[in-house]
Amino acid sequence: MPIIKSAKKRVRVASRATARNNKTKRVFRDAVKRFRAKPNSQALSKAQSTIDNAVKKGLMHKNKAARKKRQLAIQAKSAGVKLAKATKTTVKKPVTKKTSIKKPASKKTVKK
Fold it and tell me: What is the pTM of this model?
């Protein structure tokens, strides 16, 4: 057990990170297993999404993720899974206030 205060904190932080990483890995593995058990477009998109999430959290290298996604796509194609078409989503622009009043420039005092 560490004695120094910062080392104690690192133990706490590392244990929380380990728990978070294990959960993400478990979700990823479960999604891939579900797809392999019953291949359909919904399971494929869920598996690909969890792979992307693992990459975003730094648990998997992006090249490994690309390889895994490619393998899933090949399995889906051989199983005859039709991919669902992506729906176009509209992004609402945030409302911003336009102010027409500008502050006057500050005057510098010059010492003589």
Answer: 0.69
